[in-house]
Amino acid sequence: MHVKPVEMNMHGVLYLCATPIGNLEDVTLRVLRILKEVDLVAAEDTRHTRKLLNHFSIATPLTSYHEHNKTRKTPELLALLGERRKIALVSDAGMPGISDPGLELVQGAIEAGIQVVPLPGPSAALTALVVSGLPTDRFTFEGFLPREKRRRQEALQRLAGETRTMIFYEAPHRVLAALAALQSIFGERRLAVARELTKQYEEVFRGTAGEALAHFSQASPRGEFCLVVAGGEDQDSRQGRVPGRREEWEQLTVGEHVAHLVAKGIARKEAVKEVAKLRGLPKNQVYQAAIKGGV
Ligand code: SAM
Question: I need a labelling partner for 139 at 20 to 30 A (CA). Which of 53, 80, 132, 248 fits?
Fold first, then answer.
């Protein structure tokens, strides 16, 4: 591979450069400067990245680094870094290493004592999360679901008790199957389907899995998709024990409070017990109030 002459470099550095997930205006000034300054750009798809570099009149040499050649290319790139070359790693879109190649090179560089510098920028996962309208305080990134139906169901089953917002990547031809699987495991949980983020046909559909299925079944889904799914309520919040949720039941009558828990799937006997405990009332009094309220 062709690289710039070495004389200017004091140390080898691996730069991890985020690139746009659609809109080229989302590239950062720092990423552009580094792409210009490095000796070599290691790209998932050189033709794709060549277009980005051409757009910004950057002539840095490119080499490919992808899933199928990473075993061979990782030591080659590490050798160049060891010779004090500066290399920028980019993927086709977003953050390298996030459902994209990068991890092996980063691990190799760390092991070899080579400096690794991250250049933040776009990533579809966080972009989808913040526009979803779902809680952003705690979330989990799940990447792509397994392609095979049974394994996909199993993967979602393992997330059945997850209380954090969940972010998934999905290919357009599997979006409907993924939504159907989400519906079967999570029921009518709130979710957002973020399509073609930052691009001309950007669309964010917010609703339930069933509603999203109806919407995206109208025509075969096109473009790039992220699915963001609300976490489930944990045991404590279901039972009204989370401080932030207390006002919710404090506004209810005793009968309504029991009905509220029953509507959430808790057996009446358990709901009476729980309400009695939470309100410091005798169980019998709560039971009578529940009967009076028609629970
Ligand atoms: N490294 C990338 C990142 O940081 O976002 C992700 C690469 S992964 C191979 C590609 C997946 O990201 C797509 O299949 C899609 O799920 C999601 N994605 C990428 N660009 C997107 C966009 N503009 N809108 C919605 N989802 C997108």
Answer: 248
